């Protein structure tokens, strides 16, 4: 069995006097998709930004023996790529130019990135003319072109129709074969059914961590303040409020 590089996170982070993350600890390996869920304000996006190097937490973030907190931005970008929450693009880049922005750290393969997300035929279109789903794919392609081993995604399926949601999930399932994927999900059911590990945050703390198939209903109830039920059809679990 070959050794797979591991990410170890042990951090806290504060916005001024507000402690947004408190003793958040977990490990994840290359070859896995770790999903992060939790109510609004639980610290999900803050956690991703700390790993990405956008925010500077207290503690350590170690990948394959390297403490990422000690790296300069360009060196860190060779290891970690970050796909932010999708918002309307502000600049009139073509799709190809937009994806090329991801190559500054390592000089990745633009053509391969476009092919893997299915945007080759859109390469000369302005990103401002893409649909919401297509723009999300362009964001993923830009991160792919970065050539990193760890990819962070903040709500990659938010506001997407079912076709583009399916496409994004399929891409992530394929990418995890060669990377560590860490994704924040708003949709609990996507997180439970398509992740290898599940991290549940509440008020900046880890409320639960483990195999998504073992997630207790009482954890969901406590974290979200609901009385949930599980419905399982053909091996697919659905949480009902």
Automatic annotation (TrEMBL):
Report a single Gene Ontology molecular function: ATP binding
Q: Which UniProt keywords apply?
A: ATP-binding, Nucleotide-binding, Transport
InterPro entries assigned: AAA+_ATPase, ABC_transporter-like_ATP-bd, P-loop_NTPase
The chain positions of domain ABC transporter read 6-228
CDD domains linked = ABC_Iron-Siderophores_B12_Hemin
Task: Check the record and name the Pfam families matching this protein.
Answer: ABC_tran
Q: Which PANTHER family match?
A: ABC TRANSPORTER ATP-BINDING PROTEIN (PTHR42794:SF2), HEMIN IMPORT ATP-BINDING PROTEIN HMUV (PTHR42794)
Name listed for the protein in its UniProt record: 241aa long hypothetical iron (III) dicitrate transport ATP-binding protein
């Amino acid at each position: 069995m070959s050794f797979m590089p591991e990410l170890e996170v042990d951090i806290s982070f504060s916005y001024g006097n507000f402690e947004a993350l408190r003793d958040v600890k977990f490990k994840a390996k290359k070859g896995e998709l770790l999903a992060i869920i939790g109510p609004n304000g639980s610290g999900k996006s803050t956690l991703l930004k700390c790993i990405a190097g956008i925010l500077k937490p207290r503690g350590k973030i170690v990948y394959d023996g390297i403490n990422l907190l000690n790296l300069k931005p360009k060196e860190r970008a060779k290891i970690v790529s970050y796909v932010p929450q999708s918002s309307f693009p502000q600049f009139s880049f073509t799709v190809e130019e937009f994806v090329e922005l991801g190559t500054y750290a390592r000089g990745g393969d633009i053509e391969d990135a476009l092919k893997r997300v299915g945007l080759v035929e859109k390469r000369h279109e302005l990103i401002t003319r893409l649909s919401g789903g297509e723009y999300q794919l362009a964001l993923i392609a830009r991160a792919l072109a970065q050539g990193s081993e760890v990819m962070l995604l903040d709500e990659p399926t938010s506001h997407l129709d079912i076709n583009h949601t399916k496409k994004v999930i399929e891409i992530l399932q394929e990418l995890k074969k060669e990377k560590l994927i860490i994704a924040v999900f708003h949709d609990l059911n996507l997180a439970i059914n398509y992740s290898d590990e599940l991290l549940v945050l509440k008020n900046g703390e880890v409320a639960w961590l483990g195999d998504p198939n073992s997630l207790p209903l009482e954890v969901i109830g406590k974290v979200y303040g609901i009385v949930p039920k599980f419905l399982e059809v053909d091996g697919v679990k659905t949480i009902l409020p």
